[in-house]
Amino acid sequence: MITVSDKIIKKQKNFWNHCLFHPTDAIEDSWGKRILDRMAEDRAATTIRIYVMLEDIVYTDMNGKLCYDFRANDLRLDYLTEKGYDVLLAFAAMPDCIAKSSKNKTSVSFNKTRYKGKMFNTSPPADYKVWEEVCYEYIHHIVERYGIECVSSWRLQCFNEPDIPDFFMSELSHEAVAERVREYCKLYKAFVNGACRVSDKLKIGGPALAIYIEEFLIPWLEYVKANNLKLDFISYHNYGCLGFYDARELGVNALNVDNHFNKHQRLVKAVTKCGYQHLPIVMDEWGTVGGGFKNITQVPELIFRETEVFPAFFAKFITKFINSDYIVDKLMLCLSGQHEMTDEFTGFRGFFTMSSIAKPIYNGFVLAARLKENILDCNCEDNNVFIIPTKDEKNNFSVMVSYSDDDFSENLPEKLETLTFNEDISGKRITVFCIDKTHTNPYRMFEKMGVKIPSTEQLELLRAEGRLKPIAEYIAGENEKISLKLTANSCILITVE
To answer: Are 142 and 91 in contact (CB under 8 A)?
Structure first.
């Protein structure tokens, strides 16, 4: 029995409906726009993190003078602002023309290059004053174009994962953290100087940390404090553990929410040690497990990215953070790599398949977006049932219920559950949505089709299955008891309006 009280425990802003959209330059393309249009229509994500891609903007003329071409950037930001998205801008790679070296390139992708044949230049700038000037010119441009009121509501982030060679100083080993943090400190200082020359109203932060919390974050925060640098938020990435292979070697479960929670605890401890516990923490990339650009051909277990397991993980993940004392400003799911699909269900990160079929995780986001701002008290004795009971000021209820064990196995027995409200809901409309093996699950339908390549007619059936629709809708009677059938890794939303 699940009993939802009318007692409000706390007010909780939605920190979970946000994402990283990658590749950034897909915003220019029809398939990228389709995804962004759908997310805006369903309100599945409200903040989008993108790379600034200075490599598309900054160049030198024949005399070696720095020049700027903002056309591609403006197309991308115009589209996001027109759709009503909040934005986090990551200054994520060094333009060749100002880099110390033009040879230190990485793809950080499944293919040999990034999207459209591009690469990341991981080099520091040849001259930090020039880097400062580039940051100033870019920020000055967007403030002129969109206005300080708009841009000051965004977040500006210095670089991406500067603690690892994939993005910063790739010529050095993975363990050369001390060298990277020394260069990043100079990078951040120049970034702050450039931004503050435009306006002190801007929200500035970093470092979009990948792995090395204690080794990188603490010395950087000490540098920020010693130099009295502006810092408005702290960002980092949380994938729980590096990957399924690493988890096997360590003898731990790769799919376990506690992996993420433990990493967050370490980060908070480091932030508190440096005296910055008052700042917002932005998890500007998260995923269930590392191996972001791998797919099921390399790691078959990554099929969970296509199934009901992913939204169950998401529901449990946000439940744990809501119920904790930790305040997370934003959780941003990483959609990186979505351009690399060659078949429909390949285990890459993304909300949609190659043919625009909505995956269960996308609909999990759509359901979570319907949660209200007041968290209610509730009672349930089953440790495998996770509940987010909410209501708004008009006494409309939204309750998310998910059912999973520690490692999200398929062995949980089916469970019949009853949900009741202490408050009288008679006469109100009850609507029940469900994501499980048999509801809102195109991949499971695809499995039953038994084909490798769906026909045109089958693709339409799969798209229809990916469209969220109620499994029940009726008017509540007196002392209404709502019956729920919970199966392994199911995720259900009940609305009462």
So the answer is: no
What H or E segment, with its residue span, contains residue 361? helix 360-368
Kindly indicate whether the domain formed by 13-373 is annotated with CATH number 3.40.50.620.
no
Q: Which residue do the tokens 């990493």 mark?
A: 263
How far apart, in Å, are the Cα atoms of 97 and each of 157, 291, 388, 412, 442?
21, 31, 50, 57, 46
Q: Which two tokens stand for residue 403?
A: 């059912």
Name the token pair of 138.
């870019």
CATH 3.40.190.10 assigned to 376-496: no
CB 57 within 8 Å of CB 51: no
Confidence (pLDDT) at 154: 98
The whole-number pLDDT of residue 246 equals 78
Which DSSP category does 107 fall into? -
Other Cβ atoms within 10 Å of 65 Cβ, number: 8
- What ranges do the domains of the chain cover? 13-373, 376-496
CB contact at 8 A, 91 and 156 = yes
Angle at 365 between CA 349 and CA 14, to 5 degrees: 120
Encoded amino acid at 421, one letter: F
Angle at 19 between CA 18 and CA 24, to 5 degrees: 140
Residue 22 CA to residue 20 CA, distance in Å, equals 6
pLDDT digits (tens, 9 = 90+) for 240-265: 987 887 777 777 788 999 999 999 99
Position 32 scores a pLDDT of 97
